[in-house]
Write a structure and sequence with these properties.
Blueprint lengths: L15 E5 L4 H12 L3 E6 L6 H9 L4 E5 L5 H15 L4 E4 L15 H28 L5 E5 L12 H21 L5 E7 L8 H4 L2 H9 L13 H8 L10 E4 L6
Parallel strand pairs: 1-2, 1-4, 2-3, 4-5, 5-6, 6-7
Length: 259
């Protein structure tokens, strides 16, 4: 076979993707990246207003966009989201669990039970429920599915003042491995991306704190923080046929800070 006859395994042409937390930051960047790679993209967020500009950008690429309101902390809204996407488009080929929250900073001894529950509900229970429902839809249509969890380096090495968040992401990492083992026989690959410090609204408190920011940058070989778009190529790889023999991995992108 000539070199130019090899298929483009990084293409997402003909694929249907669902990206949660897609109104901004990493979720928005991934949704747009998937569209540029050829996928139709359903985008979900707690607030619909922030999704429409993203939907418009997706449609400018020539791909379809579907806007879905969903609070990942509410199981009934997760079920409605998956039913809406599957009903309108069919089962997703790709799921990106990106939505996350961290309403408080501080030691575990200082946060409330309510704050703990909110973090765990959105960051861990939400991806669990979404993955299970989407995986069932994938299996019903015999799809070779891809599930990508957006974790954090805080789930590998606890982040200062982000104890509950760190625990939730550690749980997400292990959820990735459990689902990979259980869903592998159904040809569904499950992997996670663990970004370091990425410039988003979510991380603004860390970037705007000179002490925290300089601590992170001082131990980062590349000497800088990252941008949401720098997560996209890996997400496309994990969503594409190029990664068909990869599952259960948690891949770090942090400029070398964890070395």
């Amino acid at each position: 076979m000539a070199a130019n006859e090899f298929p483009n395994t990084l293409s997402l042409a003909g694929k249907l993707a669902l990206v949660t937390g897609a109104s901004r930051g990493i979720g928005r960047a991934i949704a747009l990246g998937f569209a540029r790679a050829g996928a139709d993209v359903a985008i979900a967020s707690r607030k619909v207003a922030g999704l429409q500009p993203v939907a418009d950008e997706i449609e400018e690429t020539g791909q379809r966009a579907l806007v879905v309101q969903c609070n990942l902390g509410k199981p009934e809204e997760i079920e409605a989201m998956v039913e809406r996407v599957s009903g309108d488009w069919g089962a997703p080929d790709i799921l990106v669990n990106n939505a996350g929250t961290n309403p408080v900073m501080g030691p575990l001894t200082t946060i409330s039970v309510e704050a703990w529950d909110k973090i765990m509900d959105v960051n861990l229970r939400g991806p669990y429920l979404t993955s299970v429902l989407v995986a069932k839809a994938m299996m019903n249509e015999n799809k070779r599915g891809k599930i990508i969890n957006i974790s954090s380096t805080a789930g590998i090495e606890p982040a200062q003042m982000l104890g509950a968040y760190s625990v939730s992401k550690a749980g997400l990492n292990h959820l990735t491995r459990v689902l990979a083992r259980e869903l592998g026989p159904a040809n569904i690959c499950v992997n996670a991306i663990a970004p370091g410090l990425i410039e988003t609204q979510f991380s603004a408190a860390l970037i705007n704190s000179p002490t925290i920011f300089q601590t992170v940058i001082s131990r980062t070989p590349l000497g800088r923080h990252g941008q949401p778009e720098e997560i996209v190529p890996l997400a496309i790889y994990l969503a594409s046929a190029a990664s068909d023999f990869m599952t259960g991995e948690v891949i770090v992108i942090d400029g070398g800070a964890s070395i």
